[in-house]
Structures are given as C-alpha cells and as structure tokens.
Design brief:
Layout: E1 7-9, E2 27-30, E3 37-38, H1 40-53, H2 61-65, H3 72-79, H4 88-99, E4 108-109, H5 113-119, E5 124-128, H6 133-142, E6 151-153, H7 166-174, E7 182-186, H8 189-198, E8 201-204, H9 212-217
Parallel strand pairs: 2-5, 2-7, 5-6, 7-8
Antiparallel strand pairs: 1-8, 3-4
Helix pairs in contact: 1-4
C-alpha cells in the first residue's frame, strides 16, 4: 500500500505538540473533494458551462480548481465577474443542473485511497464535506465506497460550514468518539482549521487541491 497522506499536525486542545510515539486512533474523518476524490475536472466543466450559458468568459481549469473547497455558493462567488454577484442564485441553479447530472464523468478516488480505506475498515470512518449531502452520497455510491463510512455530513447539514468545526463535532457526537482518538484528513487550510477547532488530530493531504505549502502554513 502506498500511503498518500503526507503532512501531519499532532496537536492537543491546548495547542501543544504531542510527545513522539504511538497514539490511539478510533475514528478517521475525511474531507471529500481533494482528499478522497479528485472531482476538479467535473466541477470545472460545470462552472464553465454555467459561465458560458450566462454569457461570461470561461476560466482556466487551474483558476477554478484553486477556488474549490468552500462550498458551491462560495465557489460561484469567486468565479462570477466582479459586480455580478446579484446573479448568484441564477448561477447556482444553472451550475447545479449541470453538475448534479455529471458528477462522475472524470471524478475518481485518488491513488491508494481505496487501499487506505480498506486498511482502516475496522476503525470508524466518516466524511465531513462542504459539498451538499445528496451530491456527496451520489458520488460515494457511484464510486462504490459508501459502505466504508459510518457517518457522512454535508455542507447543508450544518449551520456553519468548514472552517467551522460543526461537521466534525456532529460526527464525534454521533459516533461516540473522543477528539483525542480522532483524526481529520483534509487538503486545505480550512480543513486543518476545522480540525484544530474540534480538538482532533489533523492530517494534511498534500496531494490534493491546495498543496503542501498551504497546509504547512495552516
């Protein structure tokens, strides 16, 4: 198995580093986009379809990829031309029409993700994402990985999305897990921030959308 998780932050609630050595983990919580799956091409396709339909200039794949992770609303706020945010709801409806029907054109798990899930299948596994729950469930089902997870929390299932810790806290409560024995794995600074606020161990997936530098600075 080639582990794809590379950047680790071991912190207690008080912010102090843990002593070197083994620590007990009973729950692993994963971000979705950029951590479990590479969905960037399908999202970029739907964004550009939306922009084109609305009469705006399309963006590069990288420009869109750099804006993924904060949820659909924030993504569209970042890609709409300046001064056109009054069209946000229209853009959201168009985007969801395209994306919800094309979730799995090119979306796939990252290399070794299935190996990691299989390796830890006897632990409690969960997903905390800013993506709407119905889309998350369709993707997990389509990739045949739903059964690995005991709990999935989407962005529409919380009052405050990541970087707020609410999704992680819901999972901890429902799975009766201690933060001291839980790990949150994500690819962005908002994931690391959410994990720290929840008091869990945070692990940065440097292969994801953001890269090592953002994670090291988080």
């Amino acid at each position: 198995m080639s582990l794809c998780i590379v950047s680790v932050k071991l912190k207690k609630r008080d912010g102090k580093k843990r002593k070197d050595g083994m620590f007990k983990v009973e729950l692993l919580i994963f971000d979705l986009d950029g951590t479990l799956i590479d969905s960037s091409e399908d999202i970029a396709w739907a964004v550009n379809k939306t922009l084109k339909q609305m009469g705006f200039e399309e963006l590069s794949y990288q420009a869109i990829k750099d804006r993924i992770g904060w949820g659909v609303k924030m993504l569209l706020e970042k890609v709409l031309p300046e001064g056109r945010h009054n069209l946000l709801e229209e853009a959201r409806a168009i985007f969801m029409g395209y994306y919800s029907n094309h979730l799995l054109m090119r979306t796939r798990p990252y290399n070794s993700v299935i190996d990691v899930l299989e390796y830890f299948k006897n632990k409690k596994l969960a997903v905390a994402t800013n993506k709407p729950l119905n889309l998350t469930e369709k993707i997990l089902d389509g990739l045949n990985i739903t059964d690995y997870f005991k709990k999935v929390v989407g962005g529409d299932g919380v009052q405050n999305k990541k970087p707020a810790p609410e999704a992680i806290e819901i999972i901890l409560k429902e799975l009766n897990a201690s933060p001291k024995e839980a790990v949150f794995i994500g690819d962005s600074k908002i994931d690391i921030e959410a994990g720290k606020k929840a008091g869990v161990i945070t692990i940065g997936a440097a292969y994801g959308f953001r890269g090592r530098q953002e994670l090291e600075e988080a």
